[in-house]
Amino acid sequence: MEPEVQRTNEQVEFRIAKLKKLKEQGINPYGERYERTNIIREITDQFEKLENQTVRLAGRLVAKRDQGKACFANISDQSGNVQLYAKIDVLGEAKYEGFLDLDLGDIIGVSGTVFKTRRGQITVQVEDYQLLSKALRPLPEKWHGLKDTDLRYRQRYLDLISNPEVREVFLKRTKIISTIRRILDEQSFVEVETPVLSVIAGGGHARPFTTHHNALDLDLTMRIALELYHKRLIVGGFDRVYEIGHCFRNEGISTKHNPEFTMMELYQAYADYEVMMELAEKLITETAMAVCGGLKLEYQGTPIDLTPPWPRISMIEAIKQYTGIDWRRIKSDADAVAAAQSLGLKLDPKSTKGMVLDEISSEFVEPKLIQPTFLIDHPIEISPLAKRKDDDPELAYRFEVFIYGREIGNAFSELNDPLDQRERFLEQAKEKAKGNEEAMVWDEDFLVALEHGMPPTGGMGIGIDRLVMLLTDSPSIRDVILFPLMRPVENK
Prior knowledge:
Layout: H1 2-24, H2 40-45, H3 47-50, E1 54-66, E2 70-77, E3 80-87, H4 88-91, H5 93-100, E4 107-116, E5 122-133, H6 149-154, H7 156-162, H8 164-186, E6 190-191, E7 197-198, E8 210-213, E9 218-222, H9 227-235, E10 240-248, E11 260-269, H10 273-292, E12 296-299, E13 302-305, E14 312-314, H11 315-323, H12 333-342, H13 353-365, E15 373-379, E16 395-403, E17 406-413, H14 418-433, H15 444-451, E18 457-463, H16 464-472
Parallel strand pairs: 3-5, 6-10, 14-15
Antiparallel strand pairs: 1-2, 1-4, 2-3, 4-5, 7-9, 8-9, 10-11, 11-18, 12-13, 15-16, 16-17, 17-18
Helix pairs in contact: 7-8, 8-10, 8-16, 11-13, 12-13, 14-15
């Protein structure tokens, strides 16, 4: 690395010298407002209209090819890239020499005439230009193909400059979120904002981040889910609410997990998990249509067909299908652990029947659910906020939707019986006392809210990051988060 660092430092010093020279000549290297008539994409999309017209563009200089008394260059903005053509007899000698002295990475404003070269390339002939921001550091080598993954995530701005397709991913992310908002707004859902900091990290099985409020001398946690505040709003009389916000879980990092992630949660009074399945299909398919233009797409080389209706399979049925184990014959926790061991799983001998069911599903079922599938009827032990099934009290009215073997969404018929909920919290407290850091924390205020009466409610969460991964064919969650958490680089 040392020679590369030295080379970069020399280039920075060289550019600083240019900067000083510009200031001595009375040129402001960090210009003022620049009025554009067009963005770059319009030059190509509307060429017939703009041919032989004068336009004003602004962008970053990303290529330059000196041919003596003429020079070809390229600038890019958020919308695209266009070729420039500068000539000494148009700009004059001094202005032309100044153009040649520009560095890659400089941001310039350009006015000129739109035309097409003999080779058919749409180009703007430079009639005047203005330096708007002098870049003191060079672009990465081969700016059009920055490949160092670590550098891309740490210095996302270089990634966005160097790889236009990355910029498209994040523009699609914005469109995905705005499409979800539009659909929910049209269905009379009310967008709400709930606390990120709380005394209790409720609403899910996860290990929270903790912090401390100095003025109140109070330990706080960052939210792991949005659920319990939303249910309070249903109690308070809102019929339909949703929120798109950040959640935080102090867990491992992988291609599917980032400690800070974006969740969409919604709650609908007088609905159940059947209604939530229909809404999940609507949200995901309409978003795919808006972003991908269809329901048949490819993810990492695998064809995915989002056409509804999606199949529904219970966890027990799926385990029998993929492992041959008839879970209805499992009568005790010990039998469940033995069944898991027969499949090669190593579990805590004290695991409950429901916990084992979930572990077997995670290992042998979920990776097989490539096409969109609702995996329904989960164990009650791992669903402390979901309503118990009438025909099987060991299971909950709950589903997870899987695509490409990944959980995209999770939903319940929400538990609205305050006495049952109190018992569930008691069981979770026992689990936490045994050392389960992910068990839910007792939330007395939420129980009091339920005791005032909450209507039957359907609730659902969709992981925005994983949905963006799917619809942009991105292999890692870090590819769809602008600034993913990274370990600091050690100073040597």
